[in-house]
Amino acid sequence: MSEPRSSDETLDRRAFLTKSIAVAGAGVLGAAAPSPATANDPPETPPWMKAPGAPLGPYGQPAKYEAKVTRTLIRSQPGTTGTGASRTPLESLEGMITPSGLHFERHHSGIPDIDPDKHRVLIHGMVERPLVFTVDALMRYPMVSRIHFLECAGNSAPMYGATPPALTCGQVHGLVSCSEWTGVPLRILLQEAGVDPKAGWILAEGADAAAMSRSVPMAKAMDDAMLALYQNGERLRPENGYPVRLFLPGYEGNMSVKWLRRIKVTPTATMTKDETSKYSDLQADGKALMFTYPMDVKSVITRPSPGVGLKGAGLYEISGIAWSGNGTITRVDVSTDGGREWTAAELVPPVLPRAITRFRQAWRWNGAVTTIMSRATDDVRQVQPTREQLVREHGTNVIFHYTAIQAWRVEANGEVKNVYA
Ligand SMILES: Nc1nc2c(c(=O)[nH]1)N[C@H]1C(S)=C(S)[C@@H](COP(=O)(O)O)O[C@H]1N2
Ligand SMILES: [Mo]
């Protein structure tokens, strides 16, 4: 077992466990340390043991004491109620799955109230047999279940700003969530319609007032694209696309068209408003990148983070999330000294392609001001860039695809602040 080299040090996991047990009560865990038990523990019968508890219920809800854990920075454009975004409170969650009720939302014209019995999905264009599917018909096809993240291309956009936004982790980075999605592979439905081999693309259109539409290359449509009907075991939530959405693993969230009503098989990309005026990436030289599909490798420390500070010097576990639209996370390095030294963090199984991967790193904080950060690598050997590298390559005209290393400064009083490092 390796001894920490200094008093501000990442530790291996065994050292962390041994140390925290050996020193518990000696103040090393600070305010969070367990207190030594006395002969009188447990001291008394608490009130909730003295009468029968609450009745059974039809649909479970979080504990009332957790009512403050909600979506965050819920903002709609002026003059609208449903056009905007809400974010996942990343700093309040653990593991890899986002509870459906806390999945981020991004709507271009609110949430349509769709009667599933009246909803239809049309497949037409360059096909032998145009087909119309009811939701009941879709339910009869063979389904697959996959755990994948969904990230809005505009996630973390405030980080392109000249000064680091004084926001929580979820407020900055919470346009990413991760669910188990269950549905019908799009390939099966396209094959049934009989796709013309000369067709290179599909157009996907939503049944919302924005009729949001995107072009998707045929290769992706035939690979892992899915018509998702279920999210985390239950039918999709209205805000996430009920009764059916397109789901494109790893691609920018915008392309996973919700409330899907139409797929048109086309020779080329359609150049919809949503992929020309929006969701193209204006670069420093005035040119714009189009069709920037995969969300590149990225990570962020969720604890500690702004609002989730430290309570005195001592042993802590740094916890965070990493993901890549190009593949599987192979490594996350953590620095607790502003980027001089890096330690490979533990990746918590299961580590799945295009899914959120939880990482953990034990750390003894000596109480001095320092900066912590994480840097993820994926199996196509992409490494998360520094902010300086990202801005050098893409400029700051752009609001999409911000993937740079996030630095949090830990102040001497344990408060955590967003900084550019
Ligand atoms: N029909 C339709 N599909 C849509 C949108 C929309 O406004 N309308 N928003 C897109 C955007 S920009 C994103 S990031 C994701 C968000 O999915 P979520 O709300 O389930 O998190 O859905 C995409 N699909
Ligand atoms: Mo988005």
Structural key phrases:
disordered N terminus; mainly beta; binds the ligand Nc1nc2c(c(=O)[nH]1)N[C@H]1C(S)=C(S)[C@@H](COP(=O)(O)O)O[C@H]1N2; 7 helices; Immunoglobulin-like; five-stranded mixed beta sheet; 25 strands; binds molybdenum atom; five-stranded antiparallel beta sheet; 421 residues; Sulfite Oxidase, Chain A, domain 2
Would you identify the CATH architecture of one domain?
A: Alpha-Beta Complex
Radius of gyration, in Å, reads: 24 Å
- Secondary-structure-based class equals mainly beta
Task: Categorize the overall geometry.
Answer: globular
Spatial gap, N to C terminus: 32 Å
Number of helices: 7
Helix content: 10-25%
Question: Roughly what is the average pLDDT, rounded to an integer?
Answer: 94
- What's the story with the biggest beta sheet? 5 strands, antiparallel
- Segments where pLDDT lies below 50 for 5+ residues? 1-7
Strand percent estimate: 25-35%
CATH class of one domain: Alpha Beta
Hetero ligands: the ligand Nc1nc2c(c(=O)[nH]1)N[C@H]1C(S)=C(S)[C@@H](COP(=O)(O)O)O[C@H]1N2, molybdenum atom
Q: What name does the CATH topology of one domain carry? A: Sulfite Oxidase, Chain A, domain 2
Q: What is the tally of beta strands?
A: 25
CATH superfamily of one domain: Oxidoreductase, molybdopterin-binding domain
